[in-house]
Amino acid sequence: MNTLKYKKLSLLLLVAASFVTVEAKKNPVLSYRDDVAGVTAQLTGSISNGTSLNINNSLLNGAPEGARGDRVDAAYASKTGIDVTANVKHDSGIEAQASARAKMSWGSATNLSTSSSSIKYGEALIGSHSHTLEPRVLYVREAWVKCDLGKLLNGAVGDHDFTVGMFPFSVGRGIAFGDNFASNVASLGFFSDSSVDQYAPGVKWSGDFFEKELHYDLYWSVAKNSSAKLKETAEQIYDRYIVNGAYVPNTQFARGFGSVEMTTAGTVKWTPINNKAEHKKAQFEPYAVYTHSNEQKVDFTADAQSRLGTFGVAGEFEYGCVEFGFDTAVNRGSQDVFAWDRNSVTTKTDPATGALIQVYSHIYNENTLTNKTIYAGDTATYRPTVILSEALNGQQIGATGKYNATNRFRDAYKNKFKGWMFVVDGSVFVYKRDLKVSAAAGIASGDKNPNTEKTGVERDYKGFISQQESYSGKRVKSSFAMAGSLVRPRPLEFGDRFVPGIEGFTNIIFTGAGFTFEPKHWSKEFSINPNILTFWQDEASKKYGSTEDASNRLGTELNVNSWIKLDEALKLKASGAVFLPGKHYTDIKGTAISKEVADMVKSAEGGVTEVLPTLSDSTAFAMSVGLEYSF
Description:
- This protein is mostly beta strands.
- It has 6 helices and 35 strands.
- The strands form 7 sheets. The protein has an 18-stranded antiparallel beta barrel. Strands 22, 23, 24 and 25 form a 4-stranded antiparallel β-sheet that branches. It has a two-stranded antiparallel ribbon with strand order 5-8.
- The longest helix is centred in the N-terminal third of the chain and has 14 residues, at 3-16.
- The two termini are 46 Å apart.
- The model is unreliable at 3-28, 184-193, 484-503 and 600-606 (pLDDT under 50).
């Protein structure tokens, strides 16, 4: 048996052996009730063990091989996840809940990492680093307290409640604004019911009117706070900020107080019809979301700010054997990109000595802009004293004999948000309520990146911006092309996000169908759900190495999701998916999947060129099998 065949057989045996035996119990919910104290407590949770195998999943590239002939664009992982939730209710109207989670990937001793921090070499920023943690860390996923004001105040204020802490909240279908505050979907695989690792901290005021026909939610949360300590408020981040054609004084380089990204949202659910016995329902949900972020990154930390408003309406309807729903929203607001000096201190290798030396990133020794100027210990030496603007790009700096790069200075401009989205789906029960046939369609507008592909003082951005979104379909599920268990395999635009937390539901058109067979009266409960979806882009991107538009045809996805209850508490889950790339991927074949990968592709140094895998058009496959024990 050759080495390659032996390795493949070993992998299959490892996959087959990657499960643990779990002893199930009937109705294993732990609960406690004290009638005297009026307290009810309950402990629930789950333990998941599973294995996944992905082929051509990240780059759609089946060609690259390692030194020993191994495939590069492939991944295998066995994973264990533990979730525990404690809930306590008091008859007076107070409820509290806390959830903890631990996730482990087999064979990865340090698969959890801290957030990255910048690395400086002298005055040069040369990258970032993070530290890894043992995966057996148990962390808080959810923790909140809810006060039923109606009960606490003996009905004086009606049916209203107040919630504070870390809890799930979304509007509509969670596309415009979802609850995916922090996640790492690869850690548990797509056999898990929930990939959200942590909910955002916030407060919510809710209530009902007209016998619960009208429900409202008012929500406020903090996604990022850079004003929590002196180290943050005093950080010198504005040394290249330009106001009215001049640098700000060196006494004003600090970030200052008030850099907090906040979201405010409101939603109203009107349910004029809700007859569960006859399967009749009509519900409308208008909503509005406003996010203020005064510290964003286009080229550098805090060189932009934005105010994003999203306004939408969703609906769900049911009449007998037919059900359907929709969600639509528009973006309004803008991103202010500040005037900035892009010059900084960076490093390069001295070709004569091989030593790492510090140089200016946007200053050259000659008008041909060939050799970067060596950092002399005083950046202010090369700060022009004339009015600063893009007119100085490529020009000599005073009489120094040094020259600005052609893109050193950036004038201020504004990006106006004008994106929109619409999704709709429906289902029909064709055999009792055991077999359901569904169809879906949707579009999220796309656009060119205004920071790199548009000019002018005011620039429109027509691509839809979603926040904390992980939408993978409601009645027709997607595994590949929409945000789900697997990352959508499409190249990322250069430049950072407009609003931190933006996910992938943008610049996409889709339609699909599927069915779900889930009999209600069989001896063993089970479900099987095959789906087929096909995708296009809304805004065309360019062919690789060309100014021509690439095809908008992204491809077709086929997937099957299934589960069976082996016992009351033990569930076996299995999923499989295939993505057939369209002509779009053939047209952009060779593109780096992201800016980070592109930055890593180095030119020849010392006679050696580093070549990394790029995007291609190979068929992608994914499969996952797992056991989930609930208590």
